[in-house]
Structures are given as C-alpha cells and as structure tokens.
Amino acid sequence: MPETRQPPLTPLGERVHLAWDLLIIALVIANLALLLFDSLFLLPPLNSAFEAVTPGLHGAYERHIHAHFLTIDLAFVAVFLLDVLLGWAVAIAERRYHRWFFYPFVHWYDVLGCIPLAGFRLLRVLRVISLLHRLQRLGMIDVRRWYLYAVLAKYYDILMEELTDRIAIRMLDNVQAQVRSHDSLTSGVVERVVRPRQQALIQEISQRLEAMAGSAYTHNRPDILRYVRGLVGRTLTESPEIQRLSRLPMGGQLTRGLEASLSDLACRLVNEALAGLQSPEFSTLVEHLAESGFDAWLRTDPHTEQVTEQVLVDMLELLKEQIAVKEWRQRYR
Questions:
Q1: Where are the domains of the chain?
Q2: Which of 69, 83, 96, 185 gives the lowest tally of CB atoms within 10 Å of its CB?
Q3: Between helices 302-324 and 147-180, what is the axis angle to 10°?
Q4: What's the whole-model pTM score?
Q5: Residue environment code for 159-176, b if the CB has 16+ CB neighbours within 10 A, otherwise e
Q6: Please, where are the H alpha helices in 138-250?
Q7: Within its chain, how far is the Cα of 251 from the centroid?
C-alpha cells in the first residue's frame, strides 16, 4: 500500500519526531536485552553461575525484576502501544494512506510486537529496523557505511544468487524434460503457434523482402550500375568473336559502340527489374515464393525433430552451466 507524499515538518517538529524515535529505539533495545537476559536467567547452569559470581546482584534481580518481569514488560508494551496510536493518529491527520484503517496493516510488525507473548516479542526487532530506516530517510544516519550493513548485504547477495540459480536450473531441468518427452515439441510449436499465424508471417516475410531489395537498390544504385557495366565490358573483352571483330578495320569503334549499347541495355534491364519490385505482380510472386519456402520449413520428419530437440537440450544444458557459475566468489574473493 503506497504512502502519499508527506508534508515537510517544521524544525521543532523534526526535533520532537527525532527525539521520540530515538527514545523508542532505546526502549526497544532495552526491552530486547531484558528479554534475552531473563531467558538466559531461566537456564539452570547460567542461573547457578550468575548466583555463584554475584549472589547479591542475583538476588536483587530475582526479587525486583524477574519476579515482576510481566509487569515490567507490560510497561514497555504500554509505551510501544502509545507509539502505534500516535503514529496512527499522525498518519490520519496527514492523510498518509488511502484509508484511515490502513496504518495497522502497513505497520503490522509494530502492532503484533505489542502482544506480550514470547513469539510476538521477537517482532520488536523489526521495530528497530523500521526506525533505523526512518532515520536513514531523514538523513540522520547512513547505514550503508556501517560494517554490519556491508556484511549483511554481502550474505544477502550470496543467498539470493544461490536461490535464484537453483530455481533457474530447476526450471531449465523441467524444460529439458518436456523437450525429451514423447510429445513432439516441434509439432506442438508448429501446430499451436506457427500455423494459426501462417498467413500473417508470410505477408510479413514478403513485405520485408520487398523492402530490403528496394532499399538495397536505392542506396547502392551507382555501385550496382557500375558493376553491371564492368561485367558487360569484361564479358565482351573475353569473347573470342569480339576479339576477332576488333581486329577488323573500324572494329575498335564498332566494339566500343557495341559495349556501350549493351551496357545501357543491361542497366535499363536492371532498372526495370528493380522498379518492378513495387508492382502487384512481383508482390504476388514473392508471397508465393515465401509460402512455398514456409511450407518446406514447417515440413518435419522424426529425424529432423530429434535433431532440433537435441539442439534445444544442448542449448539449455549450456545455459545451466553458465548459471551454475558462482559469480559471488569472483566478487567477494
């Protein structure tokens, strides 16, 4: 549930807000430390060791704190509950959420942490994290510079990479199993994916071929015509009949005129042929050719299907090997 933009606080409001957050952090830390110490106090070996080392302090703790532990914890809970109610009231006043009753659902860990039961008391740790996040957002602290944050971020990164790699490898294993199954993957792709879109694909292919040929000729017309003239000239030069003709009186002029005429004729033919790419007849011809090639491409047999499936399996295996590489070892070595 997204929060709306909060109005800026006054300097006095910021100081009060910060002081209250710091007080709550101190109380949560003290409460968690008390919970931990009292839990250890209940262990007979530690209790005996504590009594042997400091019997006076042991007796004072047992009489004044351990005997009234629930009452003390309820005092902490009262402050935490007051913090939840004040935060809820401020959220309603600032219209921070879309509905007034969204606050306890967004801050569920604060609400459940107020329940004085062993399982819910551990949620008070999340309150510390929430308050640290609030102080980080206000610019009062920068947890990214903390050593503990760097350690947690490192192992979180390692954990997420290991989890995602295992999930990805498991998914690729399932895909390989599907490819190796008796149901032909190639036939299924052809019949359920390609066939329903055959005409649209053929039209797309023919349009791309026409556009490619027309664009290639438009951008390379001088080079194409130069190549055609050079080809005609080489062909005439290498022809024995033209060589004998050039040795006759006036044969050189006749040969050059013939070469120029044939070059112009060949260039006109190329121009006409490529200009015909825009004609409906050529579009129909390209569509027929694309349809024939498309049918030949879709036509399969058991041997080609096995080859295709093996190629897919090998590609997936290569991808699994790449995913299995533990990149975090390279980053954190």
A1: 11-141, 191-300
A2: 69
A3: 170
A4: 0.46
A5: eeeeeebeeebeebeebb
A6: 147-180, 185-189, 198-238, 240-246
A7: 74
Identify the sign of the CA torsion 319, 325, 326, 331: negative
Sign of CA dihedral 213, 218, 220, 224: positive
Q: Which residue has the tokens 């007979």?
A: 44
Phi-psi region of 279 (alpha: psi -120 to 50; beta: other; left: phi over 0): beta
What are the mean pLDDT values of the chain's consecutive 10-residue runs (333 residues total)? Answer: 49 73 84 88 88 88 88 90 89 84 83 76 75 74 83 86 87 80 62 74 74 71 76 73 66 70 77 66 70 66 65 81 77 71
Other CB atoms within 10 Å distance of the CB of residue 54 = 12
How many other CB atoms are there within 10 angstroms of residue 107's CB atom?
A: 19
- Interaxial angle between packed helices 69-93 and 11-41, expressed in degrees from 0 to 180 and rounded to the nearest 10: 150
Distance of CA 125 to the CA centre of its chain: 31
Are 4 and 95 in contact by the 8 Å Cβ rule? The answer is yes
Query: What one-letter code names the amino acid at 118?
Result: A
